[in-house]
Amino acid sequence: MNIQFDQGPSGRWSFVSAQGQQHDHVMAVRSFPVAAPEEGIALVDGDGKELLWIPHLNMLADAVRARVVKAINQREFMPQILKLYGVSGFLTPSTWDIETDRGRTHLLLKGEEDIRRLSASVLLVTDGHGVQFLIRDLAQMDRFSRRLLDRFL
After folding, report:
1. Fewer Cβ atoms within 10 A, N terminus or C terminus of the chain?
2. Coil, strand or helix: which one is 113?
3. Residues 125-132: contacts with CB under 8 Å, at least 24 apart
4. Adjacent-strand bridge partners of 134
5. Which one, of 22, 19, 18, lies nearest residue 6 by Cα?
């Protein structure tokens, strides 16, 4: 795909199509951020109108792909839980002491329904503040973390 995707001085993204048409205030949005993070990317304008569909990120030139990924990462916030150190109790609400890909923190689990199984090994945990945490591969977690999680599943 022969496109341009750049960030202006104000921090907003602009897109120039292969036909040379410029669009300002553009967002890059993943269609399936958990199941297929590199597939199905839409560039949309400020009103949410789709400007370009990117079937797979590898269809973009390296520099453009890096900027699209940067735009996506600025918009999305979904830390991954890597380890559970402990929980305040097995009844909810419960405070979890966790390690994420962004550092150690605590989350408040209001109810067991806030843990959603997306597949056999992928979980989505929503804390009391609405922040979503991802467990990408349950089988890769240490035994202690899996045992704690089993009490809530």
Report:
1. C
2. helix
3. 125/81, 128/93, 131/77, 131/79, 131/107, 132/78
4. 80, 124
5. 22
Q: Which residue has the tokens 């609405």?
A: 130
Residue 67 in contact with residue 11, Cβ under 8 Å?
Answer: no
Q: Decide if 75 contacts 12 (C-beta within 8 A).
A: no
Residue-level pLDDT, tens digit, the chain, 153 residues: 889 999 988 889 999 999 999 999 999 999 998 888 899 999 999 899 999 999 999 999 999 999 999 999 888 888 999 999 999 999 999 999 999 999 999 999 999 999 999 888 999 999 999 899 999 999 999 999 999 999 998
Q: What's this model's pTM, rounded to 2 decimal places?
A: 0.69
Using CB atoms within 10 Å of the CB of residue 116, give its burial: 0 to 12 exposed, 13 to 18 middle, 19+ buried.
exposed
Alpha helices in the chain (DSSP H): 62-75, 143-150
